[in-house]
Design a protein that fits this description.
Length: 414
C-alpha cells in the first residue's frame, strides 16, 4: 500500500483539515494517510484545546488512517526542529510522499528557494541571525534574509513568500527532507479560507483553528463553531465538555504555571529549555505581580521576546523540561502509535518488520527519555485541564490503548 504523510495539530480539527487530508490522498494517489500529530502542547507554545486522544479520534473519523505522536521535544520547538522531527517520523513510517498546506499551493517556488539557499547557506543564516537581533519576528527575518541573499543572485523562477506561516513550515519540511535524503515526494495543497492566525469567523469561508478557539472561548458554547467543524468533531467536543468541562488554554492553566514559576525561582528557571539572557528574572517578577495570563504576557512580551517565543518557555516551565533533558533528544527514537483504522492496521502489519524505529503501542514496554517526557507533558496537561480535581485524568498514556475505528464507542474519555 502507498502511504502519504501529513503533519498536523488539529487544534481542533475543522473543515479545512478534512479538505487537506482528502486532497493529499487524491493528489498523491495514496491508499492511506499517515498523520504525525503534536501531543498535548503545541508548536506555538500553547496547551491543546483537547488532548491528543480526542484529537486522534477526530483524525480517524476524518480521513486519516494512522496517527503517530510527534514527541514533545519536537512538537514544542521552533519551525526547523518541529519540521525535522515530523519529517523523520513520516520517512520512518514508509511514506512515499508528504503533503502540506501552504499559502502558495505550488511546490516549485519552495524548491527554487531551497536551491538558492543551498548555495548561500552561510550568508543566509547570518542574515537571519542579524534580522532577529534587530527585533524582527522569525517569519520576517526569513523573508529579509532571503531578499538579501537573492538580490545579488540570479533567481531561477519564482520564490516562495517566507513571511507566511504555512509557507514557512512547508519550506522547513522540504529542507528537512532534503537534509536526510528522503525519497518522499513533496506535495502542497493551497490553504483554503481564513489565514493561519486569522481570529474572525466568516460563515462563507473555512475558518482557522485560531478563529474557532477564540470564538468558543468568548462564549464557551460549541454552537458558535459548529458551522466550521465536521459533525464528528462536534460529537467529540460535546463529549469532552460534558466529561472534562474545561478546554485547554493558557488563561485557565495560568494558576498552575504561576505556581511553578514562584516555586522554582530564577535560579531553577534558568535551567529550563529556551530560557536565556536573564529572562528568568523578568518571568519571575511578572508572576509575582500579575494575576492573569494576559497581563503576565503583556508585561514580558517585547520586541526581543515575541509572544510565541515566551509561550514556548512557559510550556517548558510548566512541564519541567530542562536544557539538560533536551540535549539527548536530537532525533526521534520511536514511532508512538495513537490510533489507526483497519486499513492503517493492515499497512503497519505489512511493514512492521522493516521499520527503522521501534513501533510503540504500549508505553510500559519501552523506555526512552523522550517518551518519558511525552508522558510527563501529558500528565501536566491533564492536571491543569482538570484543575487538580477528580477530572484530572492522570496516567492516560498507560491506561489507554491505541484507538481503533470505534470513534464513538469503546474509547470513552471517562
Amino acid at each position: 500500500m502507498k502511504a502519504t504523510g501529513i503533519v498536523v495539530e488539529y487544534n481542533p480539527l475543522h473543515n479545512g483539515h478534512v479538505y487537506h487530508a482528502q486532497q493529499a490522498k487524491a493528489a498523491t494517489n495514496a491508499d492511506l494517510i499517515i498523520a504525525v500529530m503534536s501531543g498535548n502542547f503545541l508548536q506555538r507554545g500553547e496547551p491543546a484545546f483537547v488532548d491528543k486522544w480526542a484529537r486522534t479520534r477526530m483524525a480517524l473519523a476524518s480521513g486519516v488512517d494512522i496517527v503517530f505522536e510527534l514527541p514533545y521535544r519536537f512538537a514544542t520547538a521552533h519551525a526547523p526542529v518541529f519540521a525535522h522531527g515530523a519529517i523523520r517520523l513520516l520517512d520512518a513510517a514508509g511514506c512515499t510522499a508528504y503533503c502540506f498546506g501552504s499559502e502558495d499551493g505550488n511546490v516549485e517556488p519552495f524548491q527554487n528557494t531551497l536551491n538558492l539557499l543551498d548555495k548561500t547557506s552561510d550568508e543566509y543564516n547570518q542574515e537571519v541571525k542579524n534580522a532577529m537581533q534587530d527585533g524582527l519576528s522569525y517569519p520576517m527575518a526569513l523573508n529579509r534574509a532571503y531578499d538579501a541573499v537573492s538580490s545579488g543572485s540570479e533567481k531561477s523562477g519564482r520564490h516562495v513568500d517566507l513571511s507566511k506561516p504555512n509557507n514557512i513550515l512547508g519550506f522547513h519540511y522540504m529542507q528537512a527532507a532534503n537534509a536526510i535524503s528522503s525519497s518522499m515526494i513533496p506535495t502542497t495543497i493551497k490553504r483554503l479560507g481564513a489565514g493561519y492566525h486569522e481570529e474572525t469567523l466568516d460563515v462563507n469561508r473555512v475558518a482557522s483553528a485560531t478563529g474557532i478557539r477564540k470564538s468558543f472561548f468568548s462564549t464557551e458554547k460549541l454552537d458558535e463553531i459548529i458551522n466550521f467543524i465536521p459533525e464528528t468533531t462536534k460529537v467529540i467536543l460535546t463529549e469532552w465538555q460534558r466529561e472534562r468541562i474545561n478546554f485547554g488554554n493558557w488563561e485557565s492553566f495560568y494558576p498552575f504555571l504561576r505556581f511553578c514559576i514562584l516555586r522554582d525561582g530564577p535560579v531553577r528557571l534558568a535551567t529550563i529549555a529556551d530560557l536565556s539572557e536573564g529572562i528568568e528574572n523578568l518571568i519571575y517578577r511578572a508572576a509575582q505581580t500579575n494575576d492573569t495570563f494576559q497581563s503576565f504576557m503583556e508585561s514580558t512580551k517585547s520586541k526581543r521576546y515575541t509572544w510565541t517565543r515566551i509561550q514556548r518557555m512557559l510550556t517548558h516551565i510548566l512541564t519541567g523540561f530542562t536544557t539538560e533533558m533536551r540535549s539527548g533528544m536530537d532525533e526521534p527514537a520511536y514511532l508512538r502509535l495513537l490510533g489507526m483504522t483497519d486499513k492503517g492496521r493492515s499497512y503497519l502489519s505489512s511493514i512492521k518488520k522493516d521499520l527503522p524505529l521501534p513501533l510503540i503501542s504500549k508505553v510500559a514496554s519501552f523506555s526512552d527519555p523522550s517518551l518519558d517526557m511525552d508522558i510527563r507533558a501529558s500528565d501536566s496537561y491533564a492536571l491543569a485541564i482538570g484543575k487538580g480535581s477528580k477530572n484530572a485524568k492522570i496516567g492516560l498514556d498507560y491506561t489507554l490503548s491505541p484507538i481503533m475505528n470505534n470513534y464513538f464507542s469503546g474509547n470513552s474519555l471517562k
